[in-house]
Amino acid sequence: MCNRIDNDMALELNLSTPSSDHSQEADDDLFSYHMHRVVTARFGCHLEELSGRQLSEAARQAELNIDLENQVLASPAALGVVILPRHVSLAIADLNACYPDRDAFMTALGRDGLTIDALASGLRRQLVYDVVLERVAADHAPVEAADEWAEYQAHPERYSDPERRLARHLLVTSRVLESSPAGAEKSSTWLAELAAALGEAGRIESQQFDDLARRYSDDRATAVAGGLLGVVDRGRLPPELDLVLFSLREGVVSQPVITARGTHLLYCERVYPACLRAFSEVRAAIRNRLIEQRRCEHVQRWLASLTTTGH
Hints:
Blueprint lengths: L6 H6 L10 H21 L8 H22 L11 H12 L5 H10 L4 H22 L7 H10 L5 E2 L2 E10 H6 L1 H18 L7 H11 L3 H4 L4 E6 L5 H7 L6 E2 L3 E3 L2 E11 L2 E2 L2 H31 L2
Antiparallel strand pairs: 1-7, 2-3, 2-6, 4-6, 5-6
Helix pairs in contact: 2-3, 2-6, 4-6, 7-13, 9-10
């Protein structure tokens, strides 16, 4: 759906270069195209829905975008770039696919003052712009093995596995506790058994917690596995549980934790400390990061040079 366009829509496209008699109309169409892009990307609405301040901001950004696009398209790097009508048609089809049908698409364009021809003309320029920047980016400085190692040494936090915990929990829901005396009796029973299991050391074996969870936990999805939550990264659990779990030592059961679901006991079965991954494991990711970084930096320098040279 994203790579096709209705034949009748294709026949409506006029991709020829406008004559001088229509230069003002072409300028207006280009401005409408860039306003549509800015309003959609920045505000997520239609032109008519903007406040006066937002409209001024959008107009300033559209003018800046047009100025930059003009400089890129007039640069030597744009020489020889050819965008065929079918490339524009495919781009329009991709946009059309974001709407329920063609009528909805055309209505959305009309609300921002765009015709299909104005859209096609703007997209053609955008495609040239994208090709030029891709050409420029491809000329970035090469990434050497020494660069990869330096990145690994300088930013170990980017290439480390975070601290994780193998966790279990036992839950008695608020509904059970409040519904009958049996609920309160159930709570006191497993708390008594837990206290006996902990003894004075404050620690418990995983099999003991497994048995308690199977017998008393109201979270049936985990109770059948002895309350097992699995290996948990920081931030995965609700904040009140996460904070408690990552304060526990290995083999220790938490104090009761109250949440909207009820009363929880958390058990930290094993601690997996944060650790730096082997260079060989992350080398490809490092290389990709550095290449993308150098591509962006090279494009930014090139764009800055256009403003200083007047191209």
